Automatic annotation (TrEMBL):
UniProt name for this protein: Branched-chain-amino-acid aminotransferase
Organism for this UniProt entry: Ostreococcus lucimarinus (strain CCE9901)
SUPFAM superfamilies (alphabetical): D-aminoacid aminotransferase-like PLP-dependent enzymes (SSF56752)
Example GO biological process: branched-chain amino acid biosynthetic process
Family: Belongs to the class-IV pyridoxal-phosphate-dependent aminotransferase family.
CDD domains: BCAT_beta_family (cd01557)
Molecular function terms, GO-annotated: L-isoleucine-2-oxoglutarate transaminase activity; L-leucine-2-oxoglutarate transaminase activity; L-valine-2-oxoglutarate transaminase activity
UniProt KW keywords: Amino-acid biosynthesis, Aminotransferase, Branched-chain amino acid biosynthesis, Pyridoxal phosphate, Transferase
Residue numbers carrying N6-(pyridoxal phosphate)lysine: K176
Superkingdom per UniProt: Eukaryota
Pfam families from the UniProt entry: Aminotran_4
Amino acid sequence: MGFGLTTTAYMFKATCELGGEWVVEGVVPYGDLSLSPSSAVLNYGQGVFEGMKAFRTSEGELLVFRPDENAKRCEEGAGRMSMPAVPRDLFRDAVLRTVSANAEYVPPVGMGSLYLRPLLIGTGAILGLGPAPSYTFLVYCSPVASYFKGGQLTPIDLTVEETYHRAAPGGSGSTKCIGNYSPVLKVQLEAKKRGFSDVMYLDAKENKYIEEVSSCNFFCVKGKTISTPSLQGTILPGITRKSICELAAARGFTVEERNVSIDEVMNADECFCTGTAVVVAPVGSVEYKGKTVKFCDGKVGPTSQAMYDELTGIQQGKLPDERGWNVKVPKFPISG
Ligand SMILES: Cc1ncc(COP(=O)(O)O)c(C=O)c1O
């Protein structure tokens, strides 16, 4: 099992008229949606999504990692895309009910997780450019394992993209809006054809500072300092990124959120990427302007390993959850 879609029995659904209250349908059978050809999401890409995971512990409990952070990011994204926000308690309840209804799909401990995909879209019909008259909020899910080929902790090879940019100052780079993702496919597919796992983007102004990878944040390590690009509106404020910054600081690393130049990366001791889907992915090599730098002999670096072990240990209930990041999934009856 990699990161492919395996559909499950149930999804969660709620709807809202512009200016109205959310109406909860609750847990419903997973299935297709019926949409007007002139729905705002199809024509204007009015939509945001989230990615989060639920884990099974060795005691058989189900845990969701930091769902309130996703609720907050979804709320901010809704604001940026002129959509009614999903109230945070509705978001959390929807996620927990989706996991509970699909509990049998959560993989055994250590074998993967249940990836959750909350989706907020403008489903109402509209012709002229404007916010949709109505909205749908869904949570569906799929059991998953490793995002990159080769399994978790297999070092990935990245190439630095110099022509295309993922986002620009003042744009929507820090929003998890659906339109941010298809433009990266062309670049990513080209890189994959050349044998790379993914692409690193540079800033659109100077083409010099690291932004992020197609679907994850970037860190580099030099001695006891861990640096990651700061949040200036062009990269996604990753929840894994935020968690790793906290865990690394608690381990005595100096954590710097600032501009990280590509030259600095080429001289780093170690690099890794973070994200809900990729977890902590060690970087084996980076190619830039025809030059390739290998990190840690292409093996998993000690910091990547330590960060991976600590994060997954907390998420799977193997290590104490000192920061209260996990939310236990109650057993709900299957109904709205
Ligand atoms: C562009 C991008 N950057 C970074 C991330 C990592 O964010 P998170 O750690 O919240 O999953 C994601 C995934 O959601 C992403 O799509």
